[in-house]
Amino acid sequence: MNDNIFSAIYQALMTKAPFDKIQQTYALFFGYKDGLFKREKTEVLSISDAGRPDKPEIVSPKDVPRRRIGTLEGLQAMLHAVCHIEFNAINLALDAAYRFQDMPEEFTRDWLQVAKEECYHFTLILQRLRELGANYGDFPAHAGLWEACHETEYDPMVRMALVPRVMEARGLDVTPKIQEKLRDIGEHRTAKLLDIIYREEHGHVAIGSHWFKYCCEQRNIDYREKFTELLTGYLKTKIKGPFNIEARLQAGFDDLEIALLQNLAE
User: Fold this and answer.
1) What range does the domain containing 174 cover?
2) Among 97, 98, 119, 239, which is most buried by a count of CB atoms within 10 Å?
3) C-alpha dist (Å) from residue 201 to 140, 160, 196
4) 70 to each of 30, 166, 193, how far by Cα in Å?
5) What's the whole-number mean pLDDT along residues 22-35?
């Protein structure tokens, strides 16, 4: 592996095989923590598509089949969707660490930590998916998360606002309801796995909140006004509610931002 941290992150980001990517990500996190990498800026490349396996087939969001969670195939499809989200989240975190090289060193450390934790989430869900007789790649999926990553590559402030604080924060809103449905059908093991992911996603959204506010402070911008501007000016669709207010407050939102979200929601 390259001894320059940014070059090594790029290598992991472009790796296609999931477990090779995971192995490299763990090595990046622990190696950087132990001072084994140099921190030297590199040319930052625009990446239209990060490394991912040939499957799943990528389709439009409207073409991803919807299945009832109460059937085996429906449960497999739901877990496959979560698996795909977590795999994309690895790439999103690696891209943030690689792309925004002018941000403080703590920014790089934070996003390598997020990438490591997303690797853990991916392996947890993949194991359960395999226990249920399916594998990652068996169902079609969409590329919405990566598209948002690509579209925000020009500015860390915009990335932090729209990816962690909008797209990933949506998981805080919907996960408890998914867990309730899983428990209703007796799928307690999967619900417990989602507990682990849910707890750590609080931290990921909080990291996004912290660095979004940092960027605004550095530019002498009011973060609430900027968040409003980005929500109304950049999102292709309306933000969806209802919101998990307690979880969002724990993840770096404030009361006024929650009120803003509720006002803008469908």
Assistant:
1) 5-39+57-264
2) 97
3) 24, 14, 9
4) 40, 29, 18
5) 96
How many domains does one find in the chain? 1
Distance CA 159, CA 162 (A): 5
Strand partners, 58: 141
Residue 68: what pLDDT? 82
Q: Using the predicted structure, report yes or no on whether residue 234 has a pLDDT greater than 80.
A: no
Quote the percentage of the chain above a pLDDT of 70: 98
- The answer to whether position 258 is within a domain reads yes
Cβ–Cβ under 8 Å, residues 84 and 136: yes
Chain centroid, CA 32 distance in Å: 21
Whole-number pLDDT of residue 236: 65
pLDDT at 194: 96
- Examine residue 214 and state whether it is found in any structural domain, yes or no: yes
**Three-class DSSP category at 62:** helix
Q: Residue 12: inside a domain, yes or no?
A: yes
Any idea of the CA torsion for 83, 84, 86, 90, to the nearest 10 degrees? 140
Tell me if 237 is assigned to some domain.
yes
Q: Which pair of structure tokens corresponds to residue 202?
A: 């609080």
Query: What pLDDT is recorded for position 260?
Result: 87
Q: Is the peptide bond before 242 cis (omega within 30 degrees of 0)?
A: yes
Residue 232, domain CATH: 1.20.1260
Q: Which pTM value belongs to this model? A: 0.95
> Token digits for 213?
């506010």
d(CA 179, CA 108): 32
